Amino acid sequence: MQSLKNSVATVLIALGLVASGFAHAEWPHDKPITIIVPFPPGGVTDVLSRMVAKELSVSLGQAVVVQNRAGAGGLLGTRAAAQAPADGYTLFLSQIASHGSLPNLHKKLDYDPVKSFKPVILLAAHPGVLVINPSKSPKTVEELIGLAKLNPGVLNYGSAGIGTTFHLSAELFKALSNTDITGIQYQGGAPAITALLGGQVDIVFSDFATALPHVRSGTLRALGVTSKARSTAVPDIPAIAETPGMGDFEVLSWISLHYPAGVPDAIVQRVNLEANKAMRSSTLANWVAAGGGVARGGTPADLAQHVDAELAKWKRVVESAGIRTDQ
């Protein structure tokens, strides 16, 4: 009798494994795949997500839709993605905030950037640009650093709020250049640029889309881009890392795909394969390049390594600058 029970149990387990494998093999079927974007429509992150969704819809033969879940600086969408079923039908458009800065800025989060998610692919990375009011004398990063050291605490920078990418960019700049520059926070990147144009602040780290029109019109002066090397979109603007002593400076607003933890490896590998193809397409690669960015790609392991490095990097910056949040 015991032998019979064991045989039945073995058969049931085998059938369960077969059914599980069959269910995974069927993926995707008639259920749409959703990409959660933790920001409002219209920004670079949102537009890229929609372009990737379009490419994946074709290659997977299944509808892929974008769902904007904005709020709390990206935390609402991140939380929703972390808590989604691990069935392969919910992707998360992760980025430097969700998997780099936010985990270091908040004392308590209801997700873990490593344990709550499964890496899929690093899609793209965009540098920012350091701009200065042209009424100020520095024409290079080296001159700016020299002026700041002669006048500690006198120069100031504007940013889009505590903990944002360009706030942390300024704090990393201060740490590496050993300068004392006062931060002034605004409710967004556009108000910070407006303050810079009006002379209320001296410098701002900004995205290309916001700053470059003013650089081209001559109302702002670009001192350097935040990537290690010059951007092909604006090759005449040097990289900040070219400045003596600033070789370790690099800030990229990167965008990636993660799944909730527990999604089967076969599904992760399939999406990784198709997303790599999408990022190699001329449509996406050219669009990213036009905005000053670089289409990336690679394996899930590559993204995991990237996230680990970013978490460690921004932990050092946050602790060094003594940045605190209420949460």
The tally of structural domains comes to 2
What is the mean pLDDT?
Answer: 91
Count of helical regions: 11
- What is the gyration radius calculated from CA atoms? 23 Å
Uncertain segments are 1-23
What pattern of helices and strands is seen along the backbone?
HEHEHEHEHEHEHEHEEHHEH
The count of strands amounts to: 10
Q: Name the beta content range.
A: 15-25%
Distance between the termini: 60 Å
- State the secondary-structure class: alpha/beta
Biggest pleated-sheet summary: 10 strands, mixed
What does this protein look like?
With 327 residues, the protein is α/β, with parallel strands linked by helices. The protein folds into two domains: 8-126 and 253-321, D-Maltodextrin-Binding Protein, domain 2, CATH 3.40.190.150; 127-242, 3-Layer(aba) Sandwich (D-Maltodextrin-Binding Protein, domain 2), CATH 3.40.190.10. Helix content is 46%, strand content 19%. The protein has eleven helices and ten strands. Strands 1, 2, 3, 4, 5, 6, 7, 8, 9 and 10 form a ten-stranded mixed beta sheet that branches. Helix 6 (165-177) links the parallel strand 5 and strand 6. The longest helix has 25 residues, at 2-26. The radius of gyration is 23 Å and the shape is globular. The relative contact order is 0.17. Residues 1-23 have low confidence and may be disordered.
